[in-house]
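Priority: low. Protein: DNA (cytosine-5-)-methyltransferase. Input follows.
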Amino acid sequence: MTKLSLIDFFCGAGGFSEGFRQQGFEIVKGYDHWKPAVDTYNHNYGEGKGVLQDILDFQDSIELIESLPNTDIILGSPPCVSFSSSNNSGKADKSLGVKLTETFLKIVAVKKFQPNSKLKAWFMENVTNSTTYLAREYNFNDLGLHEWAKKHRLSPAKIAIRIEGNSVVINSAEYGSAQIRKRVVTGEIISKGSLVVPQKTHGEIKEIFDNDLQPFKKLGFIKAILPKPNSKRSDELVSDPIYPSLQIKQSELTDHFYDTGLYSSEWKNSKFLKVNHPYMGTMSFPENEDRPSRTITATKIGTSREALIYRSEYNRTGDGEYRTPTVREASCIMGFPITYQFIGTEGTKWRLVGNAVCPSVSRAFASIVRRELKWGDVIVPCVQKVLDLENVPDLNSYEEKAFDAPRKRKSGSRFRRHPFKEGNITVTLSNYDILSNEKEASKWLTSIQYGNGEGFPSFNYHEGYYKDIEPIIENLENGKEFIQMINNGFSEKIATKEHLQRMYEEQHSIGNYLEPTVLVEFVGELINKLEFKEPVFIQKDIKIFNKDAVPKKQLFALYALNKVVTIANHN
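Result:
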């Protein structure tokens, strides 16, 4: 029997195509403007399958669209970066994303309505908010096909593509991927005139018995099946975490046996943003392995709130104690087979993986197409078992990383850090005025922020303010001991304002002085060790806070951080 055929636009690494291949579809062509994506596509689907071309080339050329292969299926996943809410806090220009998407829809419309069309279905994947920037429906006029429609005796006002009602938000974890990844899929089974949504196969434990589902695949499961990244070279067999019948030699497993350890300055910054963010909720640090992974993103970074952080398999403290995932771990979390190869540097490979469509999701839609067209189910995914490592740049080194060149921050980088968030307030050490949102570092300041939202009231305290509150703290439980600890030993670790800035930029302490993130961390640890029978401070004779009752810990933090500011600015 002839296979159903497909063509894939914005094909990237080929995740959309992979799910359909696993359901027995024939991959005809994949188009992308990024060479590493085309190289990766050609490596995995055959030389000549991937085509290096910008989809905007089709925007004003009907002839070019008509010259494309006629296939049963059209896939597309327009670049999500301009639609993503994380791009410039969601304020990025959306016009390019709209243009790319509408060019794709134009191709679909031509192939759908051309004489003797063989198109049976089309699907488009993007970030969840992308459809808010698209029209509810597109007629031929909207897609620049006025003359083409008239030529083919179609009304230019006829609806060619419907977005509303043909879109659904899909969580990849509900279809067998080991990550929570929500994306919108838009499309149509042509014979039905609408999108048919595949039934989910996985769910939370509380759902599985009533709905005949399998439990979510956990991050820890993926990590447990794969060998540890610090393993020695071996010819033992490795099983694929997602496709257990697929086995290869450990020595043939690419992009996994290398050290992704982070400098302490990197993972500590990520930890702070995850568990102690000024106005956002708490996240797990390191990752919660009893749940599906959080979303694999296109940028591999170990310092951000969104970074994926694991504890390293190496026995290290500080530098290298935590690590980011390997490219192979990330690709398995996405649902790629361990035989699938990515072409490029580590950063390129990570981008290829993070930008891809989860094969588990595309496989579910491929299965729906087969079912609707009465082609029958493919129960066991057709996974590529022949391993092709020729011309694959392998990241494996089997070596432990040397932490001898920490990255430096830019000159004049801003600093803002608080020891803890408690009582819905934070006491902050910064090198710029948070109230006026100074763009550059100026001098060291102590301030307080009220509330969990960005832009909540903030107040600066003048240098030497610690002297005003010292008598109050002395009369509190643990007060005298705390002041003694600050004055004997801690104060000597505070450098001048210039040296504090230098240490922050170089991301390490110098001599007996502590780098500012370490200073704040130390203050937090010191205060958190104190036990208070009555943890709340009630203001009486002096107004320190804009609240009558605050945690005593925040009063102690204000004392310590204001002393840092006073000593630094006057040394």
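The two ends are 83 Å apart (CA to CA). Confidence is low (pLDDT under 50) at residues 85-91.
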